[in-house]
Amino acid sequence: MLLLRLLILVLAICTGGATKGWAGEVRFIYVVPADRQEKPAYREAIGWAARHFQAWLSSKTDGLTFKLADPLVLTVRSDRPAAWFQSAQRHANYHAFYRNASEELLRLGLAKAGDSAARYVVYVDADHACGQSGAGGNGLAIVSANDLRGLVGEAIVPACAQPNGAEIAGRCRWIGGMGHELLHTLGLRHPDRSPDCQTGQCRSRALMLYGYIPYPEAALLEEELSFLRGSPFIGPNRLASPASCVR
Predict the structure, then answer these.
(1) Hey, where are the domains in the chain?
(2) Phi and psi of 70, rounded to 5°?
(3) How would residue 18 be classed by pLDDT, with cut points 50, 70 and 90?
(4) 3-state SS class at 120
(5) What's the fold here for domain 24-236?
(6) How would you class 193 by CB atoms within 10 Å of its CB: exposed for 0-12, middle for 13-18, buried for 19 or more?
(7) Quick one: 224 exposed, middle or buried, by C-beta within 10 A (0-12, 13-18, 19+)?
(8) How far apart are CA 230 and CA 61, in angstroms?
(9) Do 235 and 64 contact (CB within 8 A), yes or no?
(10) Residues 102, 105, 109, 115, CA torsion sign
(11) At what angle do helices 40-60 and 171-185 cross, to 10 degrees?
(12) Which pLDDT band holds residue 12 (cuts at 50, 70, 90)?
């Protein structure tokens, strides 16, 4: 009888360990504006990127990572045109795109900030204007059309007259950017004031600073790893090392 109980315990650990401890899941959403065509390649690329970053995080945390939703990527059509998302009529300055998109998501009943059951990564197939940006925080990350183009190898469209240092080609860079914003939804901040990341070498590799550019050759600080271990959205799931993201 004792042997039988031990076998049951071992089976429970092996089969249930991958989901134990998660308070919620990470949901990926692909929003198609009214004047854009849905692209299956975009949806597939989002899913590939989600799994890649999930495995990357598992490799950095000794087998801890986030839980993905089912379906892996939810595709939704908005009745707003693409230009509406960058409009400055309702909100101005840097966060206009993010705020417009977050209000549209709330209107459609798709996502809300501070949801205790989920964290959201939302790809909107619309360009943000010069001086605007995608962002992540308070449980909700929103990125724009260049993040989709980057994942599938399409040409990046600069938001301003001159491209900035982040508007570069390469699937790895855009997976890293998504991971950066996803971790913001879990509560990580830019470690620019951390005494452990004051060198140029650290800042160039820290995922929550500029490490999204050389991703997957990026790093998490020990204080960030400690924070993630305590997150209700992080649980045990030891995954194989991610495949190469170089196209």
Answers:
(1) 24-236
(2) -125, 115
(3) very low
(4) strand
(5) Collagenase (Catalytic Domain) (3.40.390)
(6) exposed
(7) buried
(8) 12
(9) yes
(10) negative
(11) 70
(12) very low
Do 47 and 72 form a contact (C-beta atoms < 8 A)?
yes
User: What pLDDT was estimated at residue 21?
Assistant: 66
Confidence band for 99, pLDDT divided at 50, 70 and 90: very high
Distance CA 223, CA 171 (A): 28
CA of 42: how far to CAs of 78, 234, 245, in Å? 16, 26, 15
Model confidence pLDDT, tens digit, residues 56-88: 999 999 999 999 999 999 999 999 999 999 987
State how far the Cα of 131 lies from the Cα of 91, in Å rounded to an integer. Answer: 13
Residues sharing a CB contact under 8 Å with residue 130, sequence separation 6 or more, in sequence order: 159, 160, 161
Q: Are 56 and 242 in contact (CB under 8 A)?
A: yes
CA 156 – CA 151 distance, rounded (Å): 10
pTM of the model: 0.90
pLDDT tens digits, residue range 116-141? 999 999 999 999 999 999 999 999 99
Write out the two tokens for 191: 């470690």
Average pLDDT, the chain: 92
